[in-house]
């Protein structure tokens, strides 16, 4: 992979990341926030693969597999928490879950 | 090895007492009494041994602990520490005995804490390694926090926090100084060690020495306490259970005084001379301020607590007078104050058990119903105002006469402070025991039980004994104090004898080393 | 006999120990009386034996080192006793008068439930007082000095259930302690300067060390005077003694008349060598004495309470002793001390008998006519009063006081003011003494007598009355008799008085005129209080302000209250919660405030936190980009 394609791929990853980030910030529904976090993770994965391909190293793909497993684990924990929140609060609004204020 | 046994007996005794508390509530009490009694016996036995060494150190024990950092388990005993540990164990037994009926819940844990505080105090009085010293300094602090916080009176949480924060903050300053001293000494000699004897005479520039000393001083003056760092004391003493107040007043404050004598003076001779006027002024302020404050209190335990502030002012005055007579006075003051104030706290505790209040405005005219307690209180009130014939007089007199040559103005004010001491001591008598009886008709006040008499009687005997025959204690502390003042061992100065009639009647020299408390 | 010297203070001490340890309930009254009186009686007998031994063999100073008390560095304090003629006179008065008062107390205190406690305190007092006068070092003397203070406290507050007795006791203790502070500082100075606190050493060393009139001995002597002033209730620390009358009458007789309050006289007489080196300080002793004898005399004129009259007269008579010390008439001061102990103890004991007979009535204006009802008490009281008023020729008080008045005229160290004070004081003494006699024993009876004193009360009175009449004959003036048995005792212990040149011819003039003045005073009292009581009322009405002023003891109490006691109490009360603690509380509040501030940001809204993370990341990245080009 030459440098130009790699740049474009990284740019795409950056755009995806920012989209995810913005969506985390503006969404109040926790499920959407979780999905947005997934998008950010995938953006990071994409950046790893692009960088790995650019230098011809396997590390990028190793990291992506790593991120995938981690994301899977995270989603399961995250969903469990969301279920609990829903049970407790009868809502998925993240602003309603402000019981931890100082 | 004996020295280590002293500490281990207390530590393991504490653990045993803590566990046995689950089985039986009497077992921890007996285990504690037994452990402390063994120690008391050992230390009295040591005091009875004649000192054959040429140095003031009677016993030493040095084991490697963390050699790579120059930390050793180094214990040593001289006359001053011996006096202090005898006092520790003596008051320790009394502390256990006085809580016999007072503590009803978590008895095992209570005695665990009690014995660990005593272990910490013993360690502080014995260690000659600064790292270990700091370790024991903390060991003594945390169980005390629990003693106040769990078994104290109404406002115990607040008092326990306050006590902890004051002592811990000042202790950390001391830790900084210890580490600084470690590096300064290491860089100068390339020998990194926490050993007290090696650190003596470390050469450093004045500025550094000044700062390092202030760190040590912070820990000791807060513990003592010296004005304006005294405000933890009235709260802690007032809220602690009787045994806690006894140990706080009788022993914990003494670790501050001991630190001044053992560390500040020998490690920083020039700097201590330099700050002497300020230190003495603080001490004297404490004497007067504490006494006036004591007079203004209505809570009996608080009153006694402020009297401690006043008495500890004499320690500050005497230590920084830097004369042997004054230092002897300080050592006597440490012992006699421990006993007299401890006894007053015990009496306050006994009154509280009976009438459920510490407010003197609700007391009065108790002499008729509890004559024995009244006479004993009278004795200790008199001790506290410095009546000759009781131990405190010897202490205060020596402190003052020794300080006179060092600083006349300060001594003068301190002497006037004794008038205030008279005022608050007599106030105790007046408010609690004299006047018309304030008891309601249905109320009755039982005089001391056999157990309580057995507790107070030794205190009375010791305070009188120290008043009429303080020489054994003085002889015991003498070598250590002369060393402190950096005087090499010299033949004691002959007392001036002018009148020819006296020569046939020279006082028989007391045999050195035969000491009984 | 000197080997038994140590027994003299020890015996009463043992008595006290037995009585304290056995407690209130365990001993029958008879046993308590035997222990209490027996121990002091034995000490008195021992004293008399030693005295006879002393007088016949003429042995001079004796020392008995008992044990080492403590010694540190170059300060060595043995418990050692020193007996010379000065202490001998004091020991004699303490044990002998003390014994009589103990005997008197058996009957006086018989119905009191704290009988044993009373004797325990009394015995303790006697032993402490003996320690004071026998001590060889100033520290041991200080032990006795404070010990008698303690006993005085305990005995003034003996009837503790009355709240004001406790306060009177406390006042006495604290005020004497103020004087003791001066004394203590004096000891520090002496030790710093001379390196010893043994009295005989000090007296030997001082003249070698200091020139006459140099600052150090003057300062030390003034400090010692401070101690003496407190203990002996002299101006300006005299205010505690009238209140001390709250104690039982035997206590007033023993402690607040005969012995303890004269400790100051003993101290100054004992340290005579120092005062010789410090003439300025000695002058102050005289000034204190002169002022005190006048102000206390005036106050005595206006009192209603029988015991308060006696208290003020005690202050005044001790003023005479101080005056005598101040003019260098050392042995006259001691002589007056001894005679005063006899007649004042007598007066207090007789007053006690009167008060007991009248249901604890203290007010003289409610008494009267007791002359016929209590003849024995009247006779002895009259003798005591004659001695106090210095009735010429027949009373012992005349000889002792006349000597002081004469020397205040003739002594080299005296001046005209001292002489005038002494003469005016004598005149006032005559008036108030006989005012007291006439009010109590003449006129009509106002309160009925309920209880006639028994033998144990009258016999000590008679013995003291005999002494108050005849003890004066051991020292007669030059003008007639010229007996100097008493002053000869002090030929080695006390310096002689130096007279001004060519004054001896005036002696009889002064004697006659002061004698006449006394008679005039008695006559005036008779006229005002027996013949024309109205005039007394008129005078009283016209001088009501002065009367009140004197009655309140020249308002010293109010003065001290206003300038010393009140400010300190005010501070103590206002500052009950310790302003220093407020500093630390402020620190705590500051951190709590900060904590409240920062915990606002912890609002629990998830997106807010994410925003924080993003903002932080943006800031960090921006900075990194700016810093690394």
From TrEMBL, chain A:
It is an enzyme of class 7 (translocase). The chain crosses the membrane at residues 6-26, 31-51, 63-83. It is found in: Cell membrane; Membrane. One of its GO terms (molecular function) is NADH dehydrogenase (quinone) (non-electrogenic) activity. Its EC number is 7.1.1.-. Gene3D superfamilies: 1.10.287.3510. This is NADH-quinone oxidoreductase subunit K. The lineage of its organism: Bacteria, Pseudomonadati, Bacteroidota, Cytophagia, Cytophagales. The gene is nuoK.
Automatic annotation (TrEMBL), chain B:
The keyword Transmembrane applies. InterPro entries: NADH_Q_OxRdtase_chainM/4, NADH_UbQ_OxRdtase, ND/Mrp_TM. It is a multi-pass membrane protein. One of its GO terms (molecular function) is ubiquinone binding. Residues 128-420 form the NADH:quinone oxidoreductase/Mrp antiporter transmembrane domain. One of its GO terms (biological process) is ATP synthesis coupled electron transport. Keywords: Membrane, Transmembrane, Transmembrane helix. The chain crosses the membrane at residues 27-45, 82-100, 107-126, 132-151, 163-184, 211-233, 245-265, 271-291, 303-322, 334-352, 372-390, 410-429, 450-468. It is found in: Endomembrane system; Membrane. The keyword Cytoplasm does not apply. One of its GO terms (cellular component) is membrane. It comes from the Bacteria. Belongs to the complex I subunit 4 family. PANTHER family: NADH-UBIQUINONE OXIDOREDUCTASE CHAIN 4. This is NADH-quinone oxidoreductase subunit M. It comes from Pseudochryseolinea flava.
Automatic annotation (TrEMBL), chain C:
Residues 69-119 form the NADH-Ubiquinone oxidoreductase (complex I) chain 5 N-terminal domain. PROSITE patterns: PROKAR_LIPOPROTEIN. Keywords: Membrane, Transmembrane, Transmembrane helix. It is found in: Endomembrane system; Membrane. The chain crosses the membrane at residues 6-27, 34-55, 75-103, 115-133, 139-160, 172-191, 211-230, 251-269, 281-302, 309-331, 337-358, 378-396, 416-442, 454-474, 508-529, 608-627. The keyword Hydrolase does not apply. The keyword Cell membrane does not apply. InterPro entries: NADHpl_OxRdtase_5_subgr, ND/Mrp_TM, NU5C-like, Proton_antipo_N. Coiled coil: none annotated. Gene3D superfamilies: 1.20.5.2700. One of its GO terms (biological process) is ATP synthesis coupled electron transport. It is a multi-pass membrane protein. GO terms for molecular function: NADH dehydrogenase (ubiquinone) activity; NADH dehydrogenase activity. Residues 135-429 form the NADH:quinone oxidoreductase/Mrp antiporter transmembrane domain. GO terms for cellular component: endomembrane system; membrane. This is NADH-quinone oxidoreductase subunit L. It comes from Pseudochryseolinea flava.
């Amino acid at each position: 992979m030459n440098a130009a394609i790699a740049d474009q791929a990284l740019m795409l990853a950056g755009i995806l990341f920012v989209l995810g980030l913005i969506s985390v910030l503006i969404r109040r529904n926790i499920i959407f926030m979780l999905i947005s976090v997934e998008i950010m993770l995938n953006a990071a994965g994409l950046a790893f693969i692009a960088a790995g391909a650019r230098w011809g190293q396997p590390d990028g793909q190793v990291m992506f597999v790593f991120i995938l497993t981690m994301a899977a684990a995270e989603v399961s924990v995250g969903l469990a928490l969301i279920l609990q929140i829903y049970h407790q609060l009868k809502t998925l609004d993240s602003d309603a879950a402000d019981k931890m204020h100082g | 090895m004996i020295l280590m046994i002293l500490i281990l007996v207390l530590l393991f005794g504490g653990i045993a007492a803590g566990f046995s508390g689950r089985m039986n509530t009497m077992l921890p009490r007996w285990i504690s009494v037994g452990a402390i009694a063994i120690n008391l016996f050992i230390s009295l036995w040591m005091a009875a041994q004649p000192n054959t060494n040429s140095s003031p150190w009677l016993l030493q024990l040095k084991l490697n602990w963390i050699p790579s950092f120059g930390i050793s388990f180094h214990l040593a005993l001289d006359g001053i520490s011996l006096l202090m540990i005898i006092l520790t164990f003596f008051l320790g037994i009394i502390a256990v005995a006085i809580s016999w009926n007072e503590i009803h819940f978590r008895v095992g844990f209570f005695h665990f804490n009690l014995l660990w505080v005593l272990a910490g105090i013993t360690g502080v009085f014995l260690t000659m390694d600064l790292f270990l010293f700091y370790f024991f300094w903390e060991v003594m602090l945390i169980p005390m926090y629990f003693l106040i916080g769990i078994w104290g009176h109404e406002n115990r949480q607040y008092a326990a926090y306050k006590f902890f924060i004051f002592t811990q903050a000042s202790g950390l300053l001391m830790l900084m100084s210890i580490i600084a001293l470690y590096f300064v000494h290491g860089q100068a000699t390339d020998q990194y060690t926490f050993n007290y004897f090696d650190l003596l005479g470390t050469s450093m520039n004045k500025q550094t020495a000044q700062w390092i000393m202030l760190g040590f001083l912070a820990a000791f003056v807060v513990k003592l306490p010296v004005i304006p760092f005294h405000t933890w004391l009235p709260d802690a003493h007032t809220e602690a259970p009787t045994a806690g107040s006894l140990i706080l007043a009788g022993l914990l404050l003494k670790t501050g005084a001991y630190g001044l004598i053992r560390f500040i003076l020998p490690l920083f001779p020039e700097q201590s001379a330099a700050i002497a006027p300020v230190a003495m002024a603080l001490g004297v302020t404490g004497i007067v301020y504490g006494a006036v404050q004591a007079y203004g209190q209505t809570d009996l335990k608080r009153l006694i607590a402020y009297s401690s502030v006043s008495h500890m002012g004499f320690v500050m005055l005497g230590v920084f007078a830097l004369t042997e007579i004054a230092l002897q006075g300080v050592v006597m003051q440490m012992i006699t104050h421990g006993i007299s104030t401890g006894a007053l706290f015990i009496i306050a505790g006994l009154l509280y058990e009976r009438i459920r209040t510490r407010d003197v405005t609700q007391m009065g005219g108790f002499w008729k119903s509890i004559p024995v307690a009244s006479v004993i209180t009278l004795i200790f009130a008199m001790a506290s105002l410095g009546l000759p014939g009781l131990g405190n007089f010897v202490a205060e007199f020596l402190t003052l006469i020794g300080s006179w040559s060092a600083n006349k103005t300060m001594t003068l004010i301190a002497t006037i402070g004794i008038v205030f001491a008279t005022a608050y001591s007599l106030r105790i008598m007046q408010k609690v025991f004299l006047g018309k009886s304030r008891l309601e008709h249905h109320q009755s006040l039982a005089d001391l039980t056999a157990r309580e008499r057995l507790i107070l009687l030794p205190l009375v005997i010791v305070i009188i004994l120290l008043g009429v025959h303080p020489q054994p204690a003085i002889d015991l502390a003498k070598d250590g104090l002369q060393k402190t003042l950096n005087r090499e061992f010299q033949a004691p100065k002959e007392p001036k004898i002018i009148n020819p009639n006296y020569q046939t009647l020279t006082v028989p020299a007391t045999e050195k080393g035969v000491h009984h408390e | 006999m000197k080997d038994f010297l140590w027994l003299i203070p020890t015996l009463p001490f043992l008595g006290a120990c037995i009585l304290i340890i056995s407690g209130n309930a365990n001993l029958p009254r008879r046993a308590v009386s035997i222990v209490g009186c027996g121990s002091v009686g034995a000490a008195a007998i021992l004293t008399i034996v030693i005295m006879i031994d002393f007088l016949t063999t003429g042995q001079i100073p004796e020392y008995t080192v008992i044990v080492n008390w403590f010694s540190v560095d170059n300060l060595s304090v043995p418990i050692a006793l020193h007996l010379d003629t000065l202490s001998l006179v004091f020991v004699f008065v303490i044990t002998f008068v003390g014994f009589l008062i103990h005997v008197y107390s058996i009957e006086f205190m018989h119905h009191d439930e704290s009988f044993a406690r009373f004797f325990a305190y009394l015995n303790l007092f006697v032993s402490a007082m003996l320690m004071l006068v026998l001590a060889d070092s100033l520290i041991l003397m200080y032990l006795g000095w404070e010990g008698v203070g303690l006993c005085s406290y305990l005995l003034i507050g003996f009837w503790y259930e009355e709240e004001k007795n406790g306060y009177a006791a406390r006042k006495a203790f604290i005020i004497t302690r103020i004087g003791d502070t001066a004394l203590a500082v004096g000891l520090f100075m002496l030790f710093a300067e001379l390196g010893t606190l043994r009295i005989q050493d000090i007296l030997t060393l001082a003249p070698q060390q200091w020139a006459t009139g140099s600052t150090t001995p003057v300062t030390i002597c003034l400090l010692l005077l401070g101690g003496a002033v407190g203990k002996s209730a002299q101006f300006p620390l005299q205010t505690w003694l009238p209140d001390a009358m709250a104690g039982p009458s035997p206590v007033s007789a023993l402690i607040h008349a005969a012995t303890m309050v004269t400790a100051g006289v003993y101290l100054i007489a004992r340290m005579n060598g120092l005062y010789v080196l410090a003439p300025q300080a000695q002058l102050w002793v005289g000034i204190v004495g002169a002022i005190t004898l006048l102000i206390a005399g005036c106050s005595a004129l206006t009192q209603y309470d029988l015991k308060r009259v006696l208290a003020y007269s005690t202050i005044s008579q001790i003023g005479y002793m101080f005056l005598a010390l101040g003019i260098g008439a050392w042995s006259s001061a001691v002589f007056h001390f001894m005679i005063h102990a006899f007649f004042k103890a007598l007066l207090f004991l007789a007053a006690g008998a009167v008060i007991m007979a009248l249901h604890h009535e203290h007010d003289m204006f409610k008494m009267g006519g007791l002359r016929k009802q209590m003849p024995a008490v009247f006779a002895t009281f009259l003798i005591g009063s004659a001695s106090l008023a210095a009735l010429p020729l027949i009373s012992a008080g005349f000889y002792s006081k006349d000597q002081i008045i004469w020397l205040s005229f003739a002594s080299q160290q005296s001046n005209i003011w001292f002489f005038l004070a002494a003469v005016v004081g004598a005149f006032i003494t005559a008036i108030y003494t006989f005012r007291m006699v006439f009010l109590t024993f003449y006129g009509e009876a106002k309160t009925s007598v309920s209880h006639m004193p028994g033998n144990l009360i009258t016999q000590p009175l008679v013995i003291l009355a005999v002494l108050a009449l005849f003890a004066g004959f051991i020292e007669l003036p030059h003008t007639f008799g010229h007996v100097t048995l008493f002053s000869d005792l002090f030929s080695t212990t006390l310096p002689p008085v130096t007279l001004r040149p060519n004054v001896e011819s005036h002696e009889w003039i002064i004697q006659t005129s002061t004698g006449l003045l006394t008679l005039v005073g008695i006559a005036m009292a008779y006229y005002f209080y027996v013949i024309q009581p109205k005039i007394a009322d008129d005078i009283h009405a016209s001088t009501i302000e002065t009367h009140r002023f004197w009655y309140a003891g020249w308002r010293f109490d109010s003065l001290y209250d206003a300038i010393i006691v009140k400010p300190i109490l005010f501070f103590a009360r206002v500052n009950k919660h310790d302003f220093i603690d407020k500093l630390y509380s402020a620190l705590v509040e500051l951190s709590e405030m900060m904590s409240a501030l920062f915990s606002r940001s912890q609002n629990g809204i998830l997106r807010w936190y994410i925003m924080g993370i993003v903002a932080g990341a943006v800031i960090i990245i921006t900075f990194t980009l700016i810093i690394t080009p």
